[in-house]
Design a protein that fits this description.
By secondary structure, the protein is of the alpha/beta class. About 45% of the residues lie in helices and about 10% in strands. The strands form two sheets. The protein has a five-stranded parallel sheet, with helices on both faces. Strands 4-5 form a two-stranded antiparallel sheet. Strand 6, helix 8 and strand 7 form a beta-alpha-beta unit. It is globular. The termini are far apart. About 35% of the residues are buried.
Length: about 230
């Protein structure tokens, strides 16, 4: 089954990458937070960049490291945008090898311990730099209120987000603070109910404006022109 999944992913990446080979090639990889917010990124950047959004969602950093060949493919990318933390901070049943959500109050442990999260990011950044000259970190996103569970706590996401931001600064990785963008959009909510409703709407919108702006600095392949 895994071999079949790898073949299907390779075919999907190839098909998308072949759609506009003259444009900058941008790869989006990460966990469920990235997929939720960038479901329309390809459409938003049509004609400006050939955006490939990996179908391997819900990934922790360890799972991404285990499947790097599938994620990156063989050809180089003009830019790779990545975001992790949601799947890492979630708590799971420690008695199972597979990830099964479990509240920490019931004995659940983090999918990725915070002490291992930073070193995993180090390895990911190294691999991504080998596949692209431009690597962009998208800050770990908050969980939408209507999707929160006892296995994923916002205070844990804050800790993982802070750890990742500090790591990216140490590694001199470009950062797009999407978390700040969402927080600003929710600042005007009058109460928790309105905040929850607005947050739900945000997850249905395309939030690729920062990525569009970042892409503007990418040269058109085969020329020195910046678009």
């Amino acid at each position: 089954m895994r071999a079949l999944a790898a073949a299907l992913l390779a075919a999907a990446l190839h098909a998308q990458a072949e759609s506009a080979p003259q444009l900058p090639r941008v790869l989006l990889i990460g966990d469920v937070g990235l997929n939720n917010h960038f479901q329309n990124a390809q459409k938003a950047l049509k004609g400006k960049a050939d955006v490939v959004r990996s179908p391997l969602g819900h990934l922790s950093t360890a799972a991404a490291l285990d499947r790097l060949d599938e994620l990156l493919g063989e050809a180089r990318w003009d830019a790779i945008c990545f975001s992790f933390g949601v799947s890492d901070a979630m708590h799971k049943d420690p008695r199972r090898d597979e990830v099964r959500a479990m509240s920490p109050a019931a004995g659940g442990v983090p999918v990725t311990p915070l002490a291992a999260f930073g070193p995993n990011l180090d390895l990911l950044v190294s691999a991504l730099h080998a596949a692209s000259d431009r690597v962009i970190w998208l800050t770990t996103l908050p969980s939408p209120p209507q999707r929160r569970s006892t296995a994923l706590r916002e205070q844990d996401l804050d800790r993982y987000r802070e750890a990742a931001t500090e790591r990216m600064q140490q590694l001199h990785v470009e950062v797009l603070d999407l978390h700040a963008q969402i927080t600003a959009a929710l600042a005007g909510a009058k109460n928790e109910r309105q905040r929850s409703q607005q947050h739900g709407q945000l997850y249905k919108q395309d939030l690729s404006a920062p990525l569009t702006a970042a892409r503007s600095a990418m040269p058109v392949p085969g020329s020195s022109t910046v678009v």
